[in-house]
Amino acid sequence: MPEGALPLEIRFLHDPISPYAFAGATLGSSVFLFHPEDSTYVAKCVVKVPSKTVSFLSQQFFGWKSGAEAF
């Protein structure tokens, strides 16, 4: 994962022998795919939710889409 990304949760696939996992990261609203490559794991950003400009709190609001908004 890139420097500054904070993994919120890590979820492996339901198949117990599958080496793949996903991690939702805060401070960037991204989802990363972890997979083996050679003798180590690598992370690849597969979902990036863009930030929005808002008129409250701070100038940019980093959001995480959930429910119907996620699709």
Based on CA atoms alone, the radius of gyration comes out at 14 Å
Domains counted in the coordinates: how many?
A: 1
What proportion of the residues is helical, as a percent range?
Answer: under 10%
- Describe the sheet with the most strands: 4 strands, antiparallel
Number of helices: 0
Number of strands: 6
Give the overall shape: elongated
Order of helices and strands: EEEEEE
Beta-strand content: over 45%
Question: Strands across the major sheet, in which order?
Answer: 1-2-3-4
Which ranges are low-confidence, i.e. pLDDT below 50, for 5 or more consecutive residues?
none
Overall structural class, as computed from helix and strand content, comes to mainly beta
Mean pLDDT, to the nearest integer, reads: 78
List keywords for this structure.
about 70 residues; mainly beta; 4-stranded antiparallel sheet; two-stranded antiparallel sheet
Q: Can you walk me through this structure?
A:
Helices cover 0% and strands 48% of the residues. It is mostly beta strands. It has one domain (6-63). A hairpin with a 2-residue loop joins β3 (30-37) and β4. The model has no long low-confidence stretch (mean pLDDT 78).
